[in-house]
Structure formats: structure tokens, C-alpha cells
Amino acid sequence: MGIRQMMKELVHFFGDSVLKSRTHSQPGSTNIFTGVTADWNVARSLYSIADIQSCIDKVRPVRFGEHLNLYELEVTAYSSGYCLGSANWMIDCGGEKISIVSSSSTVQNIHPLPFDETVLNNADVIILSDLRDKDGARFETILIEIGNCVANTLKNKGNVLFPCTMNGIIFDIIGFLSQHLRAVGLRGIPFYAVSPIAEESLKYSNICGEWMCTERQQKMYLPDNPMHHQDMIEQSLLYYASRADSSLQEKYQEPCVVFAGHPSLRRSAAINFIRKWGNNSNNSIIFTESEYDCEEAMSAFEGLQIKPIYLPIDDQ
Known about the structure:
It comes from Rhizophagus irregularis (strain DAOM 181602 / DAOM 197198 / MUCL 43194). The protein is of the alpha/beta class. The chain has helices at 3-14, 16-21, 49-56, 136-155, 170-183, 198-205, 214-219, 228-234, 246-249, 269-277, 294-298, and strands at residues 67-70, 73-79, 87-92, 97-101, 125-128, 160-163, 191-194, 238-241, 257-260, 284-287, 307-310. The chain has two domains: 67-128, no CATH class; 136-310, Rossmann fold (3-Layer(aba) Sandwich), CATH 3.40.50. Strands 8-7-9-6-10-11 form a six-stranded parallel β-sheet, sandwiched between helices. The chain has a five-stranded mixed β-sheet with strand order 1-2-3-4-5, with no helix packed on it. Helix 1 packs antiparallel against helix 3 (49-56) and helix 4 packs across helix 5 (170-183). It is globular, with a radius of gyration of 21 Å.
């Protein structure tokens, strides 16, 4: 889960169709409901939506633990624990077994099905990639730091922007923040998810029971939502929009917490919110994606008073 949405999001952020369809705004504009200018499109055109669908049509869905026979090989997928549907692989070459372990997570209490260590059983060869020096305790510590930063900003009547992609660990951050703010007496704070794939990702992640941890799988059979963000949507605490335009304006109020792309701050709705909030030091922008450098991202917005906070949270 997430690859198709990420590919579609990239097309929306950097594709020609977006560039031609957006209305232009003046560089100094603080109206978040006006599209960004063409000057911000610093990347070349990527593949199209049709290219994505053509690719997905060729993909065969596989269940965890399902054995696939590919010529003389037997291939089996095991949960990697990193995100919904992410997998490691065991390849049986007729007597010899090769384990392929890539982006994986052993962090507890997050939404994906946990890392299945049986992928390593009786392996003759283990191929490891994307290794990180991380631990679960550090993950929990950063999550609490994020919660405290958000709470302090809101108590000062400021707003919080998370430049992010709408998938993966961001679902856990949204759920954690909702509970944390309620615990510190900040009830009723609206959250906004602004991305071309916000609605699709939020709704789709709520029905992927097969790929969730056991606790959330059990909620699929109860009158309860497995993902906390669905409760927030039903309680009118979380709103989603494809872009920062008039459809969002009808629901918009401050102070608030906004999740918007792109984490590079070179495209999409995040730019609009920085323009609106940039001259107020009570506002904060929190970078949680370790793949993007905070200083480099903010280099395009020198002289602004908005407070940048770098708290990369990586569950790999």
C-alpha cells in the first residue's frame, strides 16, 4: 500500500498537467486558497497517471505467507513491519534459501503488521539493504517531542505545518497527536490533510486489515475503526482536501494542524501555508521525514519568522 498513491502524488506535484491547471498567485500573497506559481516547478515532468495505471495493471497481488512458483523458484512474502503491505522475501532455489530483507521496522505499537522474523529461518544467504542505526525507544521519544512541540505552538495561538507525504508513519503521527492534544487539554483542534491523494490514502488505509497489526485487525470485526484518523474524520476533527482552495476554505479555522506536501517545500500546498504563516513566530513548521534536509528545504524562505523544527522520525 502507498506506492501507487506516492506515484500519483508525484505526478500531481511535478507533472505538466498540474502546472497548466493551477491559477497563479503573486509571490507575496498570503491567500492559501490561491494556487502556487509555475516558478516553483523545479523538476522535470515525470510519468503520467496513465503510465501508473499501466504499471499497476501488471502487478500481481500477493498475500503474506503465500507461496509463488516462478519457473524453478519458490518465492514467499513476509511482513517487513515498515508500512502497509511492505514485504521481505524468501526465495527457495531448490534446496538453498535466500532471504531478502529491505526496508523493515521492529518498532512496536504502529499500525502495520509487525516484522515477521521467520523470513530468516533456515536461510543459506541473507541479503540486507537500507540498514539504519535506530531503536524503538528513540522512536517513542521523538514522537513525544513532536507532541510537545505541537501543543506548545497551539497554546501560543500558533499553527503547525507538517510538510509530508500522505502515507506511512504519518497515519500514526496523526492518531498520536489527536490523543496527546486531548490529554493536555487542547480539545477540538482541527487537523487538515492537504494532498492530491489525501482522501484516497486516508480511506484506503482504514480498510487494509490484512496488512495491519493484530489489534487493528480485530477492530475490523467490531463497530470500531482500525485507524484513529477515521474517527477524527467522523467527528469533524480531521478534514481532507486535494489542494488549498475554496473547498478547504469552507472548513478552515485557526489555530490548526496541517499536513501538506511536498516535504521538499518546492511544490504544492505546503508553500501556500508557509506564505500565510511565515511572518508569525508563533507558528511552527515541523519536519519529520528524514529523507529531506530541513535547512535546505527552508533555504527558499529566508527571513521568515515561522519556527522550523527538525524532528525526523524514522521507524526503519
